[in-house]
């Protein structure tokens, strides 16, 4: 052996032991070393994850290709190999031209019989996928074999799975397009899913050409089971079929950009339908159609469908089988909720349905009886909070909480947006005296919609799921079950920011995080403080000046009852009726008031003033907040005499302030 031969042998030995990462580094060296490249055919094989390599060796065509031809080979990691249960198609992993990651075109022909294509997706974040498998970027290796042919190996995280034909198939099925796929579905391995109904609708609507169209598209095909509702198949017309196709884009689930709406083939002036992919926390993949512009036959709204068999490659793209046709809105809100019965149609709201049924199911009857209804349905995850566990046993309270999620109206995002144009939209719920507050931030697909109810600020994670009699919006928290302290609430609620600010600089807020206490806090909303600005301009200004913080603090103290339990508005009305008046303990002395209910609204009578309660019963972990329309402010708090507005206590405070300022000046 020459010395370079020895070097080569040593390098090869090293390579055998090397991990992928190290191998990748070494491969750079190999490329530079012209002598070594003489024996690359061999070393190339040795770099390969061993499990796949043994498959290559056993396949004469693959083996010969590696020895003789230029090629790109996609090699699954040992781990991916182990995970995979089906049979391995080595030639599906090879294309007979060399492509570095940068050179990979949108699709390449595999070396399998019929040369079915492999689809390449390059994501925004730089990830590259071959069908559903991701190329592990640092592990690609490029070499020249003994014959002087360039070869590239990419390591991938999943075995590539071609369309798979049943053993007893009578037709010779070779690289079918989506239409042939539909026609020969019975001879394919599709986990016993059948596609007859949809296929006959495609034929009936004469839409074969959509499925035969050359190129690379994404086809969503509802399985037969999804047409159990007998009238449903009749609703699959030509437009609906178009809505199940994403032209000129191939989307494999692992490579899909979640919640990134793509225009479907049904996207024109009078009907606009987008389709997007998303994943639930439990790992299940869904597609949703959003009919943005509808017509008489195709209602606006979102339809969700679970993908029951994903990523079936065909000659002109990829097929996903789905559990429900898109675009078709033919169930009521009640039907929709019922469909979540145990591992039902899709699991996303299974918990919500269970809670309703555990509560006795009357809530569902109520929903059924509403001609127009919108539900804010907490996701499965939302129910996974410790505080909820305890509440579930309290049937009455739970019923109230459930009712807080129901609106007697058809309320989609467009409508919320209109209501929300200049202010936070307020919407009554089925639970008496509980309102929901919506806020929309951002535009289009970036819009974030939050909803507040009973002290909880939840985000809509799936909006506008359309039903015949209304909408379902999936939210990330259960409304009415507190999860923050009074302080946390003040800090984050956009309506309470003035009261929060005032309490911050006067250190009044410090106590509000104490979870040993039970606070009842009457919080003037920002608009309320703004009104005092009109009524008492100079007083208002001073309330927000740190120099007068003692004064602000004493005013805030008046708004805060501290006791061993909270006072809901209902409690206060009841006490008022019994005693004519309620006296609540505050830090210094007490707060005297009366509360009445007028036309479903609460009104506080304090010092002969009537103050509306804008948002009653905002529950917190250590108390309850009632948002009021005006502060508990007396004339004598704000009497203007020579520019001053002093009460007895505030005189002391301001004197104290003046003394401090003077002392500070003297000391300086
Ligand atoms: C595979 O190729 C190697 C190297 O060219 C050769 O030694 C081996 O016999 C081949 N195996 C088969 C099954 O063809
Ligand atoms: C629902 O409505 C029907 C008739 O409209 C009525 O008979 C039934 O009592 C209602 N159920 C509930 C729970 O309100
Ligand atoms: C619920 O929470 C527990 C622990 O907090 C966690 O183990 C479990 O996976 C969660 N369940 C869901 C559905 O998120
Ligand atoms: C809600 O209010 C309506 C009308 O004010 C009343 O008829 C109904 O009994 C109330 N429901 C509850 C649960 O208090
Ligand atoms: C929910 O909280 C966020 C963040 O504090 C806030 O921007 C949003 O306006 C709140 N939503 C509602 C409806 O109050
Ligand atoms: C309030 O208490 C919670 C824990 O109970 C803590 O996470 C939070 O930071 C506290 N907030 C402030 C402003 O101190």
UniProtKB/TrEMBL annotation:
Record's keyword annotation contains Transcription regulation: no
Domain of life the protein comes from: Eukaryota
Any one of the GO CC terms: extracellular matrix
Ranges where the FAS1 domain occurs: 23-160, 182-326, 333-479, 483-632
GO molecular function annotation: cell adhesion molecule binding
Gene Ontology process terms (BP): cell adhesion; extracellular matrix organization
InterPro entries: Adhesion/Biosynth-related, FAS1_dom_sf, FAS1_domain
SUPFAM superfamilies: FAS1 domain (SSF82153)
Alphabetical UniProt keywords: Signal
Protein name: GL24322
Signal peptide location: 1-23
